[in-house]
Amino acid sequence: MKIVLAYSGGLDTSVAIKWLKDSYNAEVIAYCADLGQGEDLEAVREKALATGAVRAYVEDLREEFVRDYVFPMLRANAVYEGVYLLGTSIARPLIAKRQIEIAEKEGADAVAHGATGKGNDQVRFELTYYAMKPDIKVIAPWREWPFDSRESLIDYAVSKGIDVPVTKEKPYSMDMNVFHISYEGGVLEDPWAEPPGDMYTMMVSPERAPDDPLYLEIEYEGGDAVAIDGERLGPFELLSRLNRIAGEHGIGRVDVVENRYVGIKSRGVYETPGGTVLHVAHRAVESITLDREVLHLRDSLIPRYAECVYYGYWFSPEREMLQGMMDDVQSDVTGKARLKLYKGNCTVVGRSSPVSLYNADLATFEAEKVYNQKDAEGFIRLNSLRLKQRRR
Hints:
Elements: E1 2-6, H1 11-24, E2 27-34, H2 41-51, E3 55-60, H3 62-75, H4 91-106, E4 110-112, H5 121-132, E5 137-139, H6 150-159, E6 173-176, E7 181-184, E8 214-221, E9 224-228, E10 231-232, H7 235-248, E11 253-259, E12 265-271, H8 273-289, H9 292-311, H10 317-329, E13 335-342, E14 345-352, H11 360-363, H12 375-389
Parallel strand pairs: 1-2, 1-4, 2-3, 4-5
Antiparallel strand pairs: 6-7, 7-12, 8-9, 8-13, 9-10, 11-12, 13-14
Helix pairs in contact: 1-6, 3-7, 4-5, 7-8, 9-10
């Protein structure tokens, strides 16, 4: 039997290589996607082989990830439950899609992942697997093996000589890509407890951020960010640079108890520095380029789009339908947003566009000749008719 395992080099998937080999008498092919997590992925490849994989793929998907997954999601302003910018969620469909392609290339019998039976990632991986290859066999070790906790996994790893990056003293799990890093489990399972101060990776705390604010401009074309302070950059480079800039100013940290798709409330802590800046800047350019009713109708569909991403339905007809509408709306979202970054806050201080719908003559409180204020009387009377009828 031949199995392609989505491999990160972390605790779960390192144990999974050994367990899959022993349990299924299988050849395990490890696959690791470089989504900008900043790790030494050559070391990850070597670790997979040392742990027992017969082959190990490490593939650079960074540009594709930002261009074809993160940017479309940002065009839709997707936020789950008003807080979470979906950094882990959006990575899974690309990882799983490429995993299926490798499985077909290798003639593999099955694919496997290290997601737990309590989490969202198992759903995201497997919905993509089946969307890409309906007859594929899926193995989810966490739903089969005897280990019932990360501590028991650590014990097993130690007994088998498997090097793992977590300890019983610091057991929270992390997932990182160029869009964000997440922290879950362990000491974070108490929703009342403040996260440890030394946990964070992508950004300084607002208290340690510079005392002077930083101003920057983000330029958009057709809904996508294309330049920072006049310098045009590709998607991955642009997001990477914003991560550094925003991280230095403490931008993009959230602590949330979210509703998992499987029905469990879970506490997650996220850092999304560059993504937070892009979300704020995008909204600013939209504010002067989108028609009111188009904007409001689109906004009413954001929660549904965000659910598609969070639940794992990226390759679904409903997400694709919504994406088509979202992208059509973005055709005129071209312009610049000027932002002020200061101690954890990202504030819009200016916006401009060559196709702006903002009309200073209409908006002014000063004298003008384009708006007859008396017209508002009839407008109000007509709109009050149904309210009056309720009192008759």
